[in-house]
Give the backbone structure.
Amino acid sequence: MPSRPPIASPLVLVGFMGCGKTTVGRLLAQHLGWHFCDLDDRIEAAAGVPIPTIFAQRGEPAFREIERRELLQALGAAAGRPTVLAVGGGTVAQPYNWDDIRASGGASVYLDVPLDELLERCAGISNRPLFRDAASFGALFAQRREFYRQAELTIPASGTSPADVASRVLQSLGAATTR
């Protein structure tokens, strides 16, 4: 029986806020025995303040600069340490970030959740600087969705548990039983 090809590192999870990138990413990393990296956590650590504070005090352009620097560092680290990387909802809406993700040699996965479910998941969350109201949320989703669809793999992540979504990712990558 031929062996399955290994999953390329980094395994980059993309999608809109609330789609489950962090939760699913942790499960994938655990299953694969890989390192997990959440780009938002790296950004907050580098800035020394939460993301909403970066937006409020320094603006989105400053946030995007920090995001880019931390993304490049995370991708570089993943070259030597197999990593599942969850990026922010707007990371891949910056085309130069997609270029770097592709150049890293890893795989990208879009966790696809319909707008109504994302709204429901995010309704009570106050730490999302770009979530002001349902109308702006929907407009931002529509704007970013074309970028998410550039991922190599799209996994429906609606109406199921994070464990099921992680399993779908692994099966689609041909790694459900590898470690």
